[in-house]
Design brief:
By secondary structure, this protein is mostly helical. The protein is built from five helices and no strands. It has one domain. The protein is elongated.
Length: 164
């Protein structure tokens, strides 16, 4: 009977290890896909980037105007572009934190690694924009990126369940 119980415990431990390994792989794949999307968006020319954000701004401004609120399109387009900077880096930090938390055994190291990694990516993102045609590196965008990284890391911390 004791032998059977020990075998069950070993099997449960193995299953937990396999599930954890699968979770690590999936989380890192998601983070890397988002990182690639971030870099792809940074490498777009100014015209291509403006076209995408312009389409989003126009779609949302029509939606807002349909409920009776007037929207200045050019101002709203700038807001959409700044929200995109914030949102892209928020999601990146959230995904990277969730990948690090299943890889690292200490929450502090996951937080520091996430902040460092995402801040480097945010700086690199703006650097790529400086060499993309029709784009420019902007300190304000860098600050928005870093704010997104900070908020994404906080959301990552809040999203992790404490072990029972």
């Amino acid at each position: 009977m004791r032998y059977h119980r020990k075998m069950e415990q070993k099997l449960e431990h193995y299953k937990g290890g396999v599930n954890m390994a699968r979770k690590r792989i999936i989380r890192w794949i998601l983070a890397l896909i988002w990182l690639c999307l971030t870099m792809y968006l940074s490498m777009q020319s100014g015209n291509d980037s403006a076209s995408v954000s312009g389409w989003l701004a126009q779609s949302f401004s029509h939606l807002i105007e349909s409920v009776g609120i007037n929207v200045d399109y050019s101002t709203f387009h700038v807001v959409v572009r700044k929200l995109a900077h914030f949102g892209v880096h928020l999601i990146l930090a959230l995904l990277i934190y969730r990948a690090f938390i299943v890889t690292r055994s200490y929450q502090k190291s996951a937080i520091l690694l996430t902040l460092f990694t995402c801040m480097v990516v945010a700086a690199f993102d703006e650097g790529i924009q400086s060499i993309s045609p029709g784009r420019a590196m902007m300190l304000g965008d860098m600050m928005i990126n870093l704010f997104g990284v900070t908020c994404g890391t906080i959301l990552g911390i809040l999203s992790v369940k404490e072990p029972k």
